[in-house]
């Protein structure tokens, strides 16, 4: 591999990642604002501007170092400022779901764009179609990964909303372990080489090759 | 979201996409898109159609003589490279040594940058603020202080003593040659608002030396050692500007008698005090011509070590203003204002018995404000003339606000049980601020406090709560005598030590 290829690999994955994370955090902030909580909006987070959501370590360092994992600055949510129309529990579920849902929508849009842009033999269109393909893969993965019911991820907030009282004890204990379960999962994925995301990636690939016709 | 940030967001997205496309166009490797098999490669080699073979990480790129190309993934038939060399087809490697360097170097550089960045943040958060904390908060009020002794009314004796200090600050060498040891510290003691701060400024102003102002409470911090460090820092600063005047206002905040309390905050206060004592000892010894002035209205609770000769060895009592001083003070504060002919300062001074200099300054200001408000009503450009009526109403307004009494001398009750559970109005005798007393009535009592209502003649009824401690003893005739005033003077005297 030459140096250009390496740089290209970094850029062609990092830029779609930046955009996807911005959409994800924007969706959280918008969802909270729609329920009446302006906390994130007042901190300037209800924006699609990626620069507002960048975390220096999680968004810049780690992905550029080649670590297949990253995060953006979390959006602050204050459920006590939700409107009376919705319970705080359900409101938090909706705000948590908004992020992965936005990635699903963005992934589908990118899939459509990829179908249009692919295969014209034009270098500019080829570049755009490659970036849309990367967008599809990243957003599919982000949507699935964030829905995992493990503590800092959005999926755990959904569980928070629906956990029955009888199970809340073990659930709180599980959350009390902090990021350790997630770290173990990611490390195990890395060490065993068996990725639970491989089936997901295969579906995404199937979708992409289907639209490529 | 404002339209400006919308534009910015749009610009960022466009810029990122453009960078991505440009990077792709510029850097996209021109490796073949088609894939071939090992058998195909062997067939092409046998057919002498291969121009060149390039070794890649994941396999080989085969370029044919007719201009087409394909990639072979993985390691095909093991004998293929002998085959290739037997046909004279060159095999080159595409590996750029720069990649090996970049893949290692760029992440390492990023990591180092991150470390530097985090380190800097730590520093500004931790160490930076800590060293900042140890800095003295004494403020240097300019090389030239404009206050003069003439601006201070009354306190004639204090002015006389302080003028010696002024003379010494002017030419310390001359006085030292004459063998005079001037006081290192001067403690000014007096009721609130009697002009202690103004006097200190006037010393610096008359001598024309820098004036460092600090409040005793500014040395007090939870962190042990910070207060002491600030004392050191303040004296270092002052020494650089010597001769200079340091003024410590409300010195009782740090100068309270040592050993009167338990707990870390007391320890910190005592360390600060110790440092102050040492600094006072060293002022002359280390060649700094510095005079330390301190002010308090609680000289009784100061540590004896502060008061011994060599530290604050000159005590000046600044008394409450007497009649002549009040007249002088009013004259000073009304300087530059147009007075009506009806205004008689001597009469005003007589009407303001017990007022402090600060209160007189306030009176002058209030009266001017009243007359100005009146003048503005009719004509905005009218000249403001302060009349006697303005002073009268300002005095009346202040007296209405002022509590008529602040001291409970005795409570007269029929029996001691009345103080525990009164069943009828109980008359009490109440001492007035300006002397004299008046009878009021007891509103309620509980375990620690009693509430008394009274009305000074002409004024509205006032109610105040007193600690029961002040009316401890009951005389045989049913009169509750006031407790020892000295005992109740120091509110700390009765306080149980705070255990932390």
Compact summary:
The complex is a heterodimer of chains A (213) and B (500). Chain A is mainly alpha-helical.
Distance between the termini of chain A: 29 Å
The portion of residues forming beta strands of chain A comes to under 5%
Question: Can you give the helix content of chain B as a percent range?
Answer: 40-55%
Percentage of residues assigned to helices of chain A: 55-70%
Unreliably modeled segments of chain A: none
Strand percentage of chain B lies at 15-25%
Specify Rg of chain B, calculated over alpha carbons. Answer: 43 Å
What does this structure look like?
The complex is a heterodimer of chains A (213) and B (500). By secondary structure, chain A is mainly alpha-helical. Chain A is built from 9 helices and no strands. The two termini of chain A are 29 Å apart. The model of chain A has no long low-confidence stretch (mean pLDDT 86). Chain B starts with a helix and ends in an 11-residue tail after the last helix. Chain B has helices at 3-27, 38-46, 80-86, 97-125, 127-134, 156-170, 172-177, 196-207, 226-240, 252-255, 264-285, 304-307, 323-333, 345-351, 357-378, 388-401, 417-420, 485-489; strands at 35-36, 50-56, 59-64, 69-73, 91-93, 139-140, 185-189, 211-215, 244-249, 290-296, 312-317, 405-412, 426-432, 437-445, 449-454, 462-467, 473-474, 479-481. With 500 residues, chain B is an alpha/beta fold. Chain B is built from 18 helices and 18 strands. In chain B, strands 16-15-14-13-12-18-17 form a 7-stranded antiparallel β-sheet. Chain B has a 6-stranded mixed β-sheet with strand order 6-8-9-10-7-11, with helices on both faces. In chain B, strands 1-4-3-2-5 form a 5-stranded mixed β-sheet. Helix content of chain B is 44%, strand content 19%. The interface between A and B is medium-sized, with 36 and 33 residues.
